[in-house]
Amino acid sequence: MAKKANPRRYAQAVFEIALEKKKLDLWQSDLQKAVDAVSEGDLLAALESPRIKFEDKSKFLNKRLKKINPLVMNLLLLLITKSDIGIIAEIAREYQLLLNDYRGIKPADVLTALPIEKKDEKELARKLGKMVDAKVELKSRVEPEILGGLVVRVGGKLLDGSTRSKLVALKKELATGEIKP
Fold first, then answer.
1. CA 55 – CA 86 distance, rounded (Å)
2. pTM of the entire predicted model
3. What is the pLDDT of residue 181?
4. In this predicted structure, what is the pLDDT of residue 1?
């Protein structure tokens, strides 16, 4: 069985090239353009198809992504030859993580029962930043099933202040008869 390519290794190589050439943001945007182009419609299936010649795939990509860094195009063509074009989104995601780490930014996933107002979001990012000693970039999602409060994942930590988790803990305490003060 063929070994699956490691998106992290590709992203690391790409990051090192971007850092050396001082084009971190250009690589980030071009990788995102590539992800957007490849994920549209049946293009991914066509690029993965053994029935379509490599030259045709190359021409189509060049037409679709005219103003893209030639090195990003080379990455896409390499992935096509290795039948790994499907991992381009994972490579872009890993690249973003490396870029954030390089810039001292930690992503934080925030789940709330209701949408957070912008001013509260900024305050939460500031407080979380103090906790993990880094700049925090929030990605918030609304999930009504947590009932209230919030759940935050940042820097390998999980902070669960949701009403749902508190109710589950209370249920356990009541069931075991061990009520904690």
1. 18
2. 0.71
3. 62
4. 41
